[in-house]
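User: Structure tokens for both sequences below?

Assistant:
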Amino acid sequence: MISPRPVTDLIWAHWRTRVLLSAIDLGVFAALSAGPLTADALRARLGVHPRPAADFFDALVALGLLERHADHYANAPASAEYLDPALPHTCIGPSLSAQCPGMADELTRLLRTGEALRRARDGRDFYAAVCADDRSVRAFQRDMTALSIGSARAIAEKFPWAGYRTLADIGCAEGALPAQILLAHPHLSATGFDLPAARTGFEQYTARLGLADRVTFTAGDFFHDDLPAADVLVFGHVLHNWPPEDRLRLLRRAHRALPEGGAVLIYETLIDDERRDNAIGLLLSLVMQLEVPGGSDYTGAECHRWLTAAGFTDPRTEHLDGPESMVVAVK
């Protein structure tokens, strides 16, 4: 399998830069120049809103710019040397900010106010905007394929599909996930479940791959309509659009829809359980908070707890491709 990671890593590079620039703008490195601070003390000193604070500070840890010991944050050695404005003979922060004017403005605003862009109140507002016209729907579907294709190919290889006959991709976009699985496993058939506006893109994409006779599209709202009947229900980059109570609600609906022995498969850019290694998971969590009130990414351990509370057993986490992992559990 050829990984898209050389390309996707470049896509995430500008978000690494945005986080650094926001940290400079907010004065993170200056605030820590005198010594470590707790998260609450650092947040209060900087005026950072509670909602994105933990992901922001831990993203700086994962990027190697801060260190975290117990509940205290401190400047990493390179940050203490090159990003402390009290050391003008070595500080390069002002130069970095001058080279990228305005690049971090939206993120810095989120960090100060906790408010998402475009005045969205929740995920429903976000998707209503996406579905406003055909052009925005197709652009969003293509973006989801770009985000998911590496994971889709890895899931086709790593999940034990030989033991199942059907799958349903909940929130399918244009169908990259079921397409890759069906191409690798001729015995399977699939359903794509999404809002009505996704139908055309899904049917065109899967038809181009010669899969029209093995897939169906079902339109619906996964919080209100019955989920499709299938042996495996897949949620890819879906749960992070919603607050934890809605994630649990959706997993309970999945449990009711599955047959005994059926499986649920969740794949996301999971944050590592220690919240210090997968920088892209933490960066994407900040992106989600910019776009969707209540949205955020999460750890595998958190997902295990929701699955258990929803009635599933034997949850396990497995790495897929790049920063992505899947969590699988059975009914």
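Moving on to the next sequence.
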Amino acid sequence: MPQQTSRRTSVTLTTPSASYEIVIAAGLLNTLEMRLKKLTSGKLSKIFVVTSPEIWGLWSKTVLSSFKESPTVLFLPPGERHKRMASVESLAQQLAESGADRDSLLLALGGGVIGDITGFLAAIYMRGIRYVQLPTTLLAQVDSALGGKTGVNLLAGKNLIGSFHHPLAVLADTNTLATLPPAELRAGLQESIKSGVIYDAKLFRFMEQNSDAILSGDAAALTRVVTASVRVKADVVSKDERESGLRMILNFGHTLGHAIEAATGYKKLLHGEAVGWGSIAATYVSLHRGTVTQKEADRIISTILMYGPLPRFTAKAEKLVALTYSDKKTRSGKRAFVLAKGIGATEIAFDVTDEELLIAANEMLTLMKSQTA
């Protein structure tokens, strides 16, 4: 797909501790140094790019062409299994050996794993330095790069170590979406479906009715999805920075989604794919609780599957339910579970039982087995 140029869209995310722009446009990486100088009022010390070899192979020429003096590049292998403290320590050691100081700037060039690790590294190196998110996957552009959540996984669960540390800005270059493998694009779109289900019925309806254009990579359609998804997250985070209430709704589908990732060793499914299955299970719980009608549940599930195929995996429902207790959203031993309330609204329940989850997980697994591989 050829690189595109498009109008610049900007969404401002404002919280008590930070305010910054999320810029969505094609060609942002071509003018990166100029944009960074504006963000830092011209005070650029050493710049470090944290990325994977694969992403750097695709975008190094574009990024480097905008700099008079090349930044230092630090590499991290791709994949969720590298989202660990050992990776953070290795990167921090490299920063120290390269002379990084409090005025240094980190650039997170990549998907969700790169963004989460770089943000966490920026939060703890010398007790906090600046960073900018340069998300290259759809999932990162619509979700993980926004809102200041950073962190890494433990064997016991996902994102159990982390910090809130906001970037100076998020620069989402939509040209990078053209290089995504189809599975990565589809996985990212599951997060956008989630945004529609929980907050924006208009976005959900657009995705429901325009799947062909969106899945074909149509620039206008994708930009509309990215922009609407960003607005949802920015609005929610602006109202609840530290996930004390409203921000929990962004975890629709994630309770069982994270359990699926853990049960499969973070190797079988992309994050968005696990969220897709988790969202189906959450829809079943919502249906049985009467917060969605059968028609609404059918629409949600059929739209999720429309943006598949979601990979099959092997796990017992009992194991998935047990793993939900390792979720970081558990409060005082009570599991926070996000229910769909129609399409475009949600409610948070702390009384969803193991039995309810077990029934929904089994229904989800039965549906999975019925799908064409």
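User: Anything stand out in the second?

Assistant: DSSP finds 14 helices and eleven strands in the chain.
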